[in-house]
Amino acid sequence: MRATRHLSPHSFADGLSALQNASDFDVLQALLPSLCSALGQRYFSYRGHFALPDGRFATPRLGNLPRVWQQRYDAQRYDNVDPVLSLAARQLTPVEWTAGLYASPEARQLLDEQRAAGLRFGITYPVFTPSGASGTLSLSSSRRPAHCLRPSTPHQSRPHTLAARYNARPTHDADGPDTHVWASHAAVVLAAHVHEAVWRIVQRDAAQRCAPALTPRERECLRWVACGKTSWEIGRILTLSEHGVVFHLRSAMRKFEVSSRHRAAKMASDYGLLDDVAGPPHQEIKEITFATQDRQASCSVST
């Protein structure tokens, strides 16, 4: 029998922070199993649907479902008849995989095959971004989960902050009904964090795909602009004339369609174009803020 991992609220909160800092989908995929296990669930499946500015859509998917079952689900196009996904698209509250939802013959077949694959108990959490981008995080297991989160600090008053709620101890026994409610709330929070992390990565990747192509010299010059150097100082560092530095910076500004070298440096940094450019040791790029709204980029991912 698979051992269930017990995770403290503090460790769970650390896991959520790691999701916020995830740099790509592989990192998210590696972080999610332990967080789901902390909620007593063996499997997870995330599906997102993000409209991009050019009218196309990004549809990222993450999960650790049994491969044979995932292939069967996709081949049979069960997402078109899955009543859980249909209901999750129309409400904000979690959808439990109860047998009553699977009313049609096709849905009933889905339920039978799903249970045979080991996904006997599950719940799906609808999530949305402020822009309206939708997604679902489904957690499932072969047996009804016994929630494993173990609150560790005494309950003194009703918590008002997210961190306080993680550390709030139920008034009943740790395996009692309050713990079930507490862990259910934790799952909702997990779904929101996963969706936001995916949204951030989708936006970044879309921006990078349509970022202008910069020459190595243009990237070097912009990197030093971001570090606060003047054209003369950059020329000394890169062994270029001041006129040469100005030439490269103006070329980069034209590509970004901006009139400020600092604006061009900020946009290049946002696109990730300066990440692998050699810069000063132990010196980070300075944060540059502007009153104008950042230009939104679009990227073709899927139709």
TrEMBL record:
Gene Ontology biological process terms, A to Z: regulation of DNA-templated transcription
Molecular function as annotated in GO: DNA binding
InterPro entries cross-referenced by the UniProt entry: Sig_transdc_resp-reg_C-effctor, TF_LuxR_autoind-bd_dom, TF_LuxR_autoind-bd_dom_sf, Tscrpt_reg_LuxR_C, WH-like_DNA-bd_sf
PROSITE patterns: HTH_LUXR_2
HTH luxR-type domain residues: 207-272
SMART domains reported for this sequence: HTH_LUXR
Keywords: DNA-binding, Transcription, Transcription regulation
Disordered: annotated span: 136-159
One Pfam short name: Autoind_bind
Coiled-coil segments: none
Top-level taxon of origin: Bacteria
UniProt name for this protein: Transcriptional activator protein LasR
Species for this entry: Pandoraea aquatica
Lineage of source species: Bacteria, Pseudomonadati, Pseudomonadota, Betaproteobacteria, Burkholderiales
GN (gene name): lasR_1
